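Input record (one chain):
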Amino acid sequence: MVAVSFACIAMGTACSPSPDKTGSGSGDQATKARRIAVIPKGTTHEFWKSIHAGALAAGRELGVEILWQGPIKEDDRNAQIDVVESFLAKKVDGIVIAPLDDKALARPLREASEAGIPVVVIDSNVAWDGRKSFIATDNYKGGTLCADALATKLGGKGKVAMLRYIEGSASTEERERGFLEAMANHPGIEIASSNQRGGATTASAVSASETLLGRFGDLQGVFCPNESVTFGMLRALQDSGKAGSIVLVGFDASPKLVEGLAKREIEALAIQDPVKMGELGVRRIVDVLEGRDVPARIDTGVTLVTADSMNEPANARLLDPDLSILDK
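The corresponding structure, as predicted from the sequence alone:
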């Protein structure tokens, strides 16, 4: 077994003071709560905090213990593999995971399944058909929504760029593909650049954004496919005095991105429902453990939010989810 050598990650647990005694589970479940490992791609972005909150809420309601652990950086494939292997050694009852690489995580997840530990995949798919369910946004649709919003704001003509995330992230690659294919329906839009990557951190995203803006000084619009890259581009636009003049369409929410949306420095954000994603991940893995059938694919939805629609109650909840459970 590979030793877990990365930095200590925040962990959360949730269990009911009265474990299930209804007889619906196995005999020893009356005295010992099931342990469900929930493994995010990273632990620093607001998106993962929302996943954590949803998982904890479901865990407390269902009387299972939530073990939350993941790599600090979202490009640390080896660290996430180490997390999976450490939970295999602990013989957890089930795994809910957002794989940060669709290929690299296939082997350890297959090993988990072979060891009798069922796996539910959330957020981003994996190149392995042994998962019990895949629960995520329709990321391709999200990319198309962003393309249409950007093209509409530009009146169907202009020069734009797409700053990618990291290689191997299935969710963002689907958003990028959706964006590019939808932009083909807007022949007046020229895509000046679509092969640059922002990387997994805000610092790398800011640097890549500055390089992109410097190279293409006549850009009129930009698309970024996740929280960190969107924030990096926003920072670069603010620092260069171009925020609001270059149309920015991005993905996900954080306090700084919501502030940028309100100030119209961001034209639109494609918003997921990570709290729901974390909650459903735990609920479905418990269903599997209880012998119930689960859907192979669950779409948790995607909503395009603008400054004009951000205060609508449903959108406001997505932009500012209740994470108070993390403090309890």
